[in-house]
Amino acid sequence: MESRVRYESFGGIIGLTEPPALVFVDQQYMRELGHDESPLWQRPRSHLTAPTEVHFNLTRRCMLSCRHCTSSATSHEAAEMTGAQAREGIDALAAMGVFHIAFGGGELFLRDDAIELARHARQRGLVPNATTNGHRMSEALARQCRVFGQVNVSVDGVGDSYGLVRGSGDFAHADQALRWLTGAGVCTGINCVVSRLNFDRIEEVVAYADRLGLKEVLLLRIKPSGRATRAYPSLALTAEQGRAFYPMLKKLAKRYRPTLQIDCSLVPHICAHRPSKKAMQALGVEGCGGGDMLLGVNADGAMNACSHYPQWFGQVSALAEVWDDHAHFRQFRERKVTDPRCQACGYFSLCRGGCPLFSEFLAGDFHAPDPECPVLLAG
Fold it and tell me: Which of 179, 246, 277, 365 is 20 to 30 A off residue 11, Cα-Cα?
C-alpha cells in the first residue's frame, strides 16, 4: 500500500507501508500507477529533490559515556532545540517530501517531548523511527513507542560482553527495554557497532536477537567521529576482520531469522567479495548517500550531509533554501575518487570509493578512497 509518493526527475519514489519500503521507479511506471506528469521529468537533476531519510538528534544528553559515541554525548546540559524549533524542523522536512526521520541522541528519551515529536512527525506524513540505549525505557513508555515505525536498541554484546566496546551501561537495562518493546507490539531491532573487540562475538548478538524475535540487527562500522575519534586506533577493525566481515554476514543471514542490515560505510567490505551487483542494487546496498539520500540534524538544529561528519551549518528549518546549492552538500555529491585502483574496480559505481569520513581521517583527503577497503589493503 502506498503511503507517500514523491516525484523525481527519473520518475518517482514510492513509500510503501506493507511491506515497509521505498521503491524508486521510472517515469513510465509512475504513469502506469496512475500518477500525473511532473515538470521535474523535463529537467534532469544530479541529486534528489530532498533526502529520503534524516538522522535527527534530539539531544546530546546521555546517562552513559560510551567511548565509541560519535556525537560526544554528555551528562551535562547541552544546547538543543526547543519543542517548537524541533516541530518547525520536522515541518520543513515534511514539506520537502522526506519519508523517514530517525530520532536519536544522545539518549532521545531524556527529552520529555520525544514521543510528542514523533507523533507530530506522523501527523505530517513522516515515518518516525528511534534509536535508544534502553536505559530510560519503561513498560509504559514502550507502549507509547508504538508511534514509531521501528525502535532499535543499541547492543554491542550480550551479557558480560555488552561493555566490551561501550565501556559503560548495563546489559540488563537494554535487555529489559527490548522485552518491553516487543511485548508492546513495537517493531524492534538492535543497533550493533562492529569493532575489533566484539567482532568475534557478533553471532552472539544476532542469536540473541533471534531468540527475542526481533526484526533486524543493524551492523554499524566503528567510526572516527566525536568521542570515538580518540578510541578509534584501538577499536578499528583489523585488516583480517575487514576481509572476514562479508563471509560472516552471509553465514549469520542463513542461520538466523532477523534481517541483517549494514550502514553505507561497510559497502567496500561487501564489494571486496564480488557479490551480485544486481542484488546489491535491488537491496539498496550502495556507498555514501550523504547530501543526497541522507541528511544529519544536530541537537541544536544545525545540518550536515552525514550525521557522523564533523561539520555543521545553518538550521534544518531552512533546508529547502540550501539543499540544491550549498557547498557542503556539493562536496559530498561531487566527491571525485580518482585513484586508478578504484576506477578500475567493477564495483566503483556502487561503492563510490567508500566512506569519505575514513578517507579524511586516515588519509587526510576527502577525495581519497577509503584506506580500509579490503581490496586496497590486499594490494
Answer: 277
Judged by average pLDDT, the poorest of 51-55, 74-78, 247-251 is: 74-78
Indicate the pLDDT class of residue 19, thresholds 50, 70 and 90. confident
Assign 252 to helix, strand or coil.
Answer: helix
Residue 201 CB partners (closer than 8 Å, separation 6+): 157, 158, 161, 164
Bond before 19 cis per omega within 30 degrees: yes
pLDDT in tens, 115-148: 999 999 999 999 999 999 999 999 999 999 999 9
Angle (nearest 5°) at CA 64 between 60 and 67: 90
Angle formed by the axes of helices 239-255 and 202-212, to 10°?
A: 20
132's enclosing H/E stretch is strand 127-132
Cell of 85: 524549533
11: left (phi over 0), alpha (psi -120 to 50) or beta: left
Q: Is pTM, for the whole model, over 0.70? A: yes
CA dist., res. 374 & res. 379, Å (int): 9
